[in-house]
Amino acid sequence: xxxxxxxxxxxxxxxxxxxxxxxxxxxxxxxxxxxxxxxxxxxxxxxxxxxxxxxxxxxxxxxxxxxxxxxxxxxxxxxxxxxxxxxxxxxxxxxxxxxxxxxxxxxxxxxxxxxxxxxxxxxxxxxxxxxxxxxxxxxxxxxxxxxxxxxxxxxxxxxxxxxxxxxxxxxxxxxxxxx
Amino acid sequence: xxxxxxxxxxxxxxxxxxxxxxxxxxxxxxxxxxxxxxxxxxxxxxxxxxxxxxxxxxxxxxxxxxxxxxxxxxxxxxxxxxxxxxxxxxxxxxxxxxxxxxxxxxxxxxxxxxxxxxxxxxxxxxxxxxxxxxxxxxxxxxxxxxxxxxxxxxxxxxxxxxxxxxxxxxxxxxxxxxxxxxxxxxxxxxxxxxxxxxxxxxxxxxxxxxxxxxxxxxxxxxxxxxxxxxxxxxxxxxxxxxxxxxxxxxxxxxxxxxxxxxxxxxxxxxxxxxxxxxxxxxxxxxxxxxxxxxxxxxxxxxxxxxxxxxxxxxxxxxxxxxxxxxxxxxxxxxxxxxxxxxxxxxxxxxxxxxxxxxxxxxxxxxxxxxxxxxxxxxxxxxxxxxxxxxxxxxxxxxxxxxxxxxxxxxxxxxxxxxxxxxxxxxxxxxxxxxxxxxxxxxxxxxxxxxxxxxxxxxxxxxxxxxxxxxxxxxxxxxxxxxxxxxxxxxxxxxxxxxxxxxxxxxxxxxxx
Lengths: 179, 512
What we know:
The complex is a heterodimer of chains A (179) and B (512).
Chain A: H1 6-22, H2 25-39, H3 42-49, H4 54-62, H5 64-67, H6 72-83, H7 90-104, E1 108-114, H8 120-131, E2 140-146, E3 153-158, E4 161-166, H9 167-178
Parallel strand pairs in A: 1-2
Antiparallel strand pairs in A: 1-3, 3-4
Helix pairs in contact in A: 1-7, 2-7, 4-6
Chain B: H1 5-17, E1 24-35, E2 38-43, E3 51-54, E4 60-66, E5 70-76, E6 87-94, E7 96-99, E8 107-108, E9 125-128, H2 151-156, E10 166-169, H3 175-188, E11 194-200, H4 204-216, E12 223-228, H5 234-253, E13 257-263, H6 265-278, H7 292-300, E14 314-322, H8 331-339, E15 342-346, H9 348-352, E16 365-366, H10 375-398, H11 406-422, H12 432-443, H13 455-469, H14 471-478, H15 490-506
Parallel strand pairs in B: 8-12, 10-14, 10-15, 11-12, 11-13, 13-14
Antiparallel strand pairs in B: 1-2, 1-6, 2-5, 3-4, 3-6, 4-5, 7-9, 15-16
Helix pairs in contact in B: 5-6, 7-8, 10-11, 10-12, 11-12, 12-14, 13-14
């Protein structure tokens, strides 16, 4: 769990309030992910972070290569970030935005670790169980991991909350009790 | 008692039978920063303030700062294994320590681990280290004395059970000695008061010396020593008094009496300042955090005398403060003075002049203990306090002139004898009946004709004489029930006077 910048969260919150009003979550997310991916290039990242390059950054944002397919709102947002010399926070901001949009739209991202790979029916079962009686299983997005070390059962992680239903955890608890 | 294998099997079967926990839920975070006994953890959005955190490898921590995306925690124990990225889990419990009789005679760390190599601690119960002090309804006023066995304290600065009395003075003025005497006195007089000594930031050698002294005087078996020495992390030093207090509260809430000494709160304030600054809490005066007063007041409020409906138990606290060059007006001393029910001020000048214990009776007060003094003691202490006050006034003035009228001369003579009488060797606490008899000899003028150098011998021989020839007088002093508050019962006074006459005629040989 990597730490994300709190300043990036503020930008994400600003974007999310616009997205919520206009219902444009997916457009914002795809635009900003595209820019963040481009910024993954270390050279571009270093250039953007350099305070001496403020003017060039502005040119850079407006450049054809960068703005290909972006909406005007996104470009304005990038200028706002650049004017505050915070463009290097963009990848964190995208992560925050994804989390906020998930919460706003009732999507839950869950990491499920099992000892053996789960087949589709089992995945469906996990989704239904996690969604509960009133929830929609479609909105539970699973990421699957396989770790034979847990022996059996499942470890379900959602954000920083872990529900450990593995055989390993039960054995550990038993050992602590008997010690 | 032999351990039978079927008992072990049965207990295991019981435990396995009762084991039906299918899910272990916890909140996790990862360490982003660690050092100097504190950690900053990203995540842990569900952590509670004061919650016990599991760092893995058996290392625990305590959440102190809950921020938007991080938690600031103190690490209780070794933090060598913890690094950036270490996973931390919540436990759902708050920090607890073992309490109960299994701790008596033991030296433990602030988290209740044994430090004396005498094997594991057998704890019957665990109690949280941070609890809210008893409220108004649960308390009653102080009314039973806690005898320290130190003449100058028991007579002029009486302590009641449930009182908070500050011991304040420069380094090496006998602060810890008073605590040691008090603990030894509880053991010698078999008062049933359980003692807890909390060493905060003390030299380990000093603590081990104290443990040995208590052991030699048969007082260790009644005492719990909690140590966060000078080399312990600031986190453990911060936690130590709260942990010791929890151990004392066990006896208080059971209806028993306990005595706890925090040696010393100056170092505790330093440790708390260090922890707070590392956790990036805003510094205030002298860089102490804003809640350093609350940190001490909530600790000392837990010393209380409970009302009969709640068992009538008590916890008496002796916090210690070390001053620099006798300056009482700095931040932490003034704070703790205002929290406590009085203070015993020990002065370096007196100590160096050979007046030991070096109690400055002019600056020392006990705001509530007077109500707890025994009748006989109150009868002699009033006169003593008055005589000593007049003496202090005249002593300063008499240094200038040599021509003094007879009344002044007599006052000085009396004062010097009384001052001599109040001197007491270390580790020699005195039973209350002996104190009354010896102070009565002083205030009734018996010592005025005795040479100053002979006062100690007079007292010793007088007490010996009374114990062997008139043992019934000791019982009378102890059981004195008369209501007059300022004078000793006339009958008792007469009996004592007769015994003194007899002593002087038959046993006392003044050296010439």
